[in-house]
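Deliverable D5.2: sample structural annotation.
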Amino acid sequence: MGAAIVFDLDGTLVDSLGDIVAAANQTLSDLDLPPLPREVIGRFVGNGLPKLVERMIRHCELPLDRHDELTKVTLAHYTAGASKTTVPYPGIPQALASLRSQGHTLGVCTNKPEAPARHILDALDLSQYFDAVLGGDSLTTRKPDPQHLFASFDALPAHGLRVFVGDSEVDAETAERAEIPFLLFTQGYRKSPVTDIPHDIAYDTSDEIPPLVAQMLQMSAQVK
């Protein structure tokens, strides 16, 4: 029997930071404020768009009572250009095709709002590989709440082994709270050393994913 594998999106399947930075800086431009460096906005990523905007507001010392307004503005800017520079990480389409051919079912659990998440997957021709996509606004909870991840798995056909694949501290915490095996992509948007992030297996390139899942399946069968 194949596994049910749920992926994070940003920093795991796709490198989307350029478009996120552009949207955030367009919002600042609307306010006649100078742009922030890519590495600064990169530190705001991981807990969904509302949290990113909150961090941007605090960094720029703007009034917090404008949070809802500026979140809507930033989302509009992002939705208008969500796939301008975003690309899959090298080898992702091939890895996803391989996993599907091996009988695994795949889903996406992201804190990005669902509409732009689906737009990106469509634009990059990745939607074909996924049976479920849950965004940060699909439920009343989002990562690191494990209910977000549980719902993503529940939206997939039943399988014995569940595996979560992500790149960040938020993903690691989600997997740990859900007690689900976690594959950590080391080249994404993490802010801490790999050794400080809880994970079962770390990998550097996408072509490692299918054999690692096979390894985890074998280990799971031996435990049983």
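Annotation notes: The beta strands are 4-7, 14-15, 87-88, 105-109, 132-134, 162-166, 182-185, 201-203. Residues 4-15+87-223 form a domain with the Rossmann fold fold (CATH 3.40.50.1000).
The annotation will be released with the project's public dataset once the embargo ends.
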